[in-house]
UniProtKB/TrEMBL annotation:
Protein name, per record: aldehyde dehydrogenase (NAD(+))
Annotated catalytic residues: E252
Highest rank taxon of the organism: Bacteria
Keyword vocabulary terms for this entry: Oxidoreductase
Family, similarity comment: Belongs to the aldehyde dehydrogenase family.
Organism: Marinobacter psychrophilus
A molecular function GO annotation: aldehyde dehydrogenase (NAD+) activity
Catalytic activity: an aldehyde + NAD(+) + H2O = a carboxylate + NADH + 2 H(+)
Domain Aldehyde dehydrogenase intervals: 13-477
Pfam families: Aldedh (PF00171)
Organism lineage string: Bacteria, Pseudomonadati, Pseudomonadota, Gammaproteobacteria, Pseudomonadales
Family matches, as InterPro entries: Ald_DH/histidinol_DH, Ald_DH_C, Ald_DH_CS_CYS, Ald_DH_CS_GLU, Ald_DH_N, Aldehyde_DH_dom
Amino acid sequence: MPCLDQQFINNQWVNSQGQRRLAVTDPFRESVIAEVTAGDPADVDVAVAAARLALPAWRRLSGTRRADYLDGFANGLTKRREALIRLSSTNNGKAIAEAAIDLDDAIACFRYYAGQARALDARQGESITLEMKGVVARCYHDPVGVVGLITPWNFPLVTSAWKLAPALAAGCTVILKPSEVTPLPEQVLADIALDIGLPAGVLNLLHGDGQGIGAPISRHPGIDKVSFTGSNRVGEAVMRAASDTTKGISLELGGKSPILVMEDADPQQAADWVMAGIYFNSGQICSATSRLIVHETIADALYAALAERIDAIRLGDPLSPTTDMGPLTSAHQRDGVQRYLDIAAAEQLAAVRDARHRELPKQGYFLAPTLYRDVPVTSRLWREEIFGPVLCGRSVASEEEAIELANDSDFGLVATVISGDSERAQRIGREMQAGSIWFNSEQLVLSETGWGGFKRSGIGRELGPWGLAAYLEVKHIIGPAT
């Protein structure tokens, strides 16, 4: 059984100073498939020293040269594609078809930021138009410095790419902490770094948990910025720790996102989009549109269409091509979602579909895809992020009521609007208090468009040019014109 007890620092695998070991599981077979070090603050100290030593040369490298390395990461992932898809599916539990989508997204992200790195060269020293005569001003974009990147367990390699690619494109050096729950796929990033000759110290990959690695990264004075994706509870702790050294921070946190189905929508087509927004990755997605807001005139037809589709979901071995939904990623996550289902039972919520409507596989951390209707707005299931295959619905009588209900949330990551009138759907989308709004579509997450939310869903943006800007500082040089 593999034991991941080494850290990738300065282009070498070195023994971790951590004494604790954590189990890495296969959530379908409910078996331990590896152990990983919990890490130690001393590991962070050594990695930060390496990253700071590598920073001057890496930041002076042209964007075009850094882009070549980013293309190298994309090529390396492509070369290992089939093996990584199976490894991600095994460690995370997601259906293998979903793991394939993830890996292709990661590859596309590295390619996109290779293009952004090349374009950055042309932006350096741009002249600023001034009202004052006899003065010249030019704008430059400098890397933030050494950055700490902390990624979650639900999308291995994807969220790492979202952070690592723009950070390297900007000229930052990196301390990357993948999730201790799904560390196996992330190992490949170190292997590729060696294969492509990435300069030593530019990428340092540290295994560990929050205590051993995450918290030390957040408070380390030698780290200039932290980017974190995960829960609000941990994200707020990261923010507090980062505030002691006034370091920059980006947070991609929770969501309780709405999907609005208006009275002019086709219930059958709407049902397909609703399903895609909640049951992908067993509902373990921050962008899950887990609050269904449907016009009362088509509610019954929509619920009937959803019930048919939920019944058709095939649960099973995530490595099987016939599986639609795998298990939840860990027993801990399954048990957390089950607590919400227990609340639903105590509140006597009306279940259109739940565990009573199907037989679960004999093994694996499975929960039945669940749909409740007419859920009170005071219910914790309506207001809190569940992070599992649980959809809560409510009916409304008007567009105005739908918009008000959609925005009545502590979160604002995404939303979806479904209407028979495309212009109407886009107009309603403009009223949504969220970072990404889809209309008449499944969730399209694109490298070119920003990702991040309003309210408690986080701080800052990833992807697109905004993702690159998150790792750049703006500098102006001003003086007399000659």
